[in-house]
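Notes from hallway chat w/ T.B., transcribed later so I don't forget. T.B. wanted the structure written out for a chain they're using in a teaching module, and asked if we could keep both sequence and structure tokens in one place. Agreed to drop them here.
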Amino acid sequence: MKKIVLIIACGISLAATAQTQFITKGRVEYEKRVNQHKGIEDQAENNIWMQSMLKAYPKFLNDVYELRFDENRSAYKLAKENPDNKYLMWGTKPTETDGVIQDLQNRTTSTQREVFENTYVIKDSLRNLEWRITDETREIAGFECRKAVTKICDSVYVVAFYTDQIPVSSGPETFGGLPGLILGLAIPRLYTTWFATKLELVEPTSAQLNPVQKGKKVNWNQLYTELKKGFKDWGKEADKRLWIVSL
């Protein structure tokens, strides 16, 4: 009888240890989903040409992205473009050369972005986002995640779900700064979401965490100044273009 009790006790101890185990290396796949009709449905109400465009193009775009990470660094890029996508709006088609490297140890980031005919490499410090962590939780890819909210570009709300079971302060695109990896992200004004679909416990190679980036080297302020000159005649649409670039 004593042996049985000892085995049960050991089992409970091992289970407790497994539950508190943290993940610090791996690869996450995200599904990026964009509702490309949402931004123009109201304009199409009395516009026959625009109505025909909405019928010809799918409402949702879906692509697969990956984030490879360890304790000190992460690299985010397109993993697989959906061949069924048909792009109605600028800024929704993914680019294979775009990517984000976050150096969590030195608190710097390097982002390659293709904007129209130009390619930029934006080198700057990590984003200093003011996150508000809430009590709301949800399960994503088998992990319990806590909700946090912040703003970019002064007025664009961002909703994130992070897990402290992966204590790596990173996430999709240039987002991070939370006490765990972001597995879910939503930007309502851009009708866009990113949600993790699976985690692979594979250690990234040095090459995977340090992809080659090529383009005109700028920081974020220099890029915004340059783009605002190009968008000066775009009216309200210019703001949306900048929001997309700012991801």
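Follow-up for T.B.: The domain at 23-245 is CATH 2.50.20 (outer membrane lipoprotein receptor (LolB), chain A). Might be a good example for the class.
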